Amino acid sequence: MRRRPLLALGALAAVGGLPAQQPAAANSTAEPGGGLSGELAAHDPTLWLDAQGGQWVFATGEGLARLHSRDGRHWQRLPPVFNAARKPAWWAQHVPAHKGLDVWAPKLFAHAGRLWVMYSISTFGKRTSAIGLASVPLAEGPGAEIWRDDGLLLDSHEQRPDEGYNAIDPDFFADAQGGLWMAWGSWWRGLFVTELDPATLRPRGTHSHLARRHGGIEAPTLLQRGEHVYLFMSAGQCCKGVNSTYDMRVGRGPGPRGPFIDREGRPLLEGGGTLLLAGGPRWKGPGHQDVWSSPAGDTLVWHAYDAEAEGQPRLRRAALRWGADGWPSLA
Fold first, then answer.
1. Hey, how many other C-beta atoms are within 10 angstroms of the C-beta on 255?
2. Which residues pair with 231 in a beta bridge?
3. Which residues contact 244 (CB under 8 A, 6 or more apart)?
4. How many domains would you assign to the chain?
């Protein structure tokens, strides 16, 4: 159950508290997602491409880790979003046992002239968690030094057992009709979604149950393609290095509330989910994916644990391809 990324092995880098690594540590192309170099230590990545052609990955880490690339291949690390002087005060109120600047599972998106990042904070191994929001003017972009604290979106607590969810792993989705949605969830009773007020980006209405799976499920990603909304998710256990059992699965439905089924017609609420990527000889436990969609094609990023680097999590990236039957695969 969630969660603290395995980022403690090896020496710590000067920026962001992440482990140092060799530039070629994730350069293998024998399994999907290779061909990358530079600073690749990352867990729970989200991808953003700016108007100048720059590419950005935000990820779990001390203060919320930031990586930048000019070509999508070679990556460098920048200072994190939060530091001790810019730590939101509400964190301590909603997650009293939260440690330092440990921030998880960001999601970048644009709305109303601003660039936003959803993220989560949590008590490790507990259901006392919160999803927060920060933003900058869109023109400043993801490299902005100062981010505005936009407060709490959703929380969960051990003392509220009827909630059935853990408020982590947020995903933002804009539907074809202009509706805005947030999906989230981990373990317990699975994945959920709620509509967002476009003026405040706060949840409104009821929470809908999207998927559940025995043995764990988390990290939802919603994507519109044609008449279907696809739900990508990570099943199994993360954060155990080479012993992680994460794999990526997918289903689809008529809208963000579902109902979602997999390629074989199995409901995701009954444990279904078509396998997209499982671990291989070197790259273990692939998961916590994000999709960048553009007219040029769809790109998937995720993390996997490198068996040749003591099981440390590394950034992976590949083109998402679509078959004639409407189901995705990885290049």
1. 19
2. 222, 251
3. 236, 237, 238, 279, 284, 285, 287, 305, 311
4. 1
Q: Alpha-carbon distance 238 to 1, whole Å?
A: 8
Closest CA to 185 of 134, 127, 133: 127
Strand residues in 19-73 grouped as ranges (E): 37-38, 46-49, 55-59, 61-62, 65-69
Please check whether residue 2 lies inside any domain of the structure.
no
Is 218 catalytic? The answer is: yes
CA–chain centroid gap for 282, Å, is 22
Q: pTM surpassing 0.90? A: yes
Whether the predicted pLDDT of 7 surpasses 70: no
The identity of residue 189, as a single letter, is R
Per-residue model confidence (pLDDT) at position 126: 80
What is the domain extent for residue 105?
37-330
Residue type, 163: E
Of 169, 171, 218, 262, the catalytic one is: 218
Per-residue pLDDT tens digits for 276-301:
999 999 999 999 999 999 998 999 99
* DSSP string for residues in 156-181: E-TT-GGG-S-S-S-EEEE-TTS-EE
Q: What is the rounded distance in angstroms from the CA atom of residue 232 to the CA atom of residue 302?
A: 11
Residue spans of alpha helices (H) in the chain: 90-94
pLDDT of residue 22 exceeding 70: no
**Alpha-carbon distance values, 116 to 68, 99, 106, 138, 300 (Å):** 17, 23, 10, 8, 20
Phi, psi torsion values for 136, nearest 5 degrees? -140, 160
Residue 57 located in a structural domain: yes
Residues in the chain: 331
Structural domain includes residue 3: no
Q: Which of 39, 44, 102, 163 does the annotation list as catalytic?
A: 44
209's tokens: 């149950």
**Active site annotation includes 44:** yes
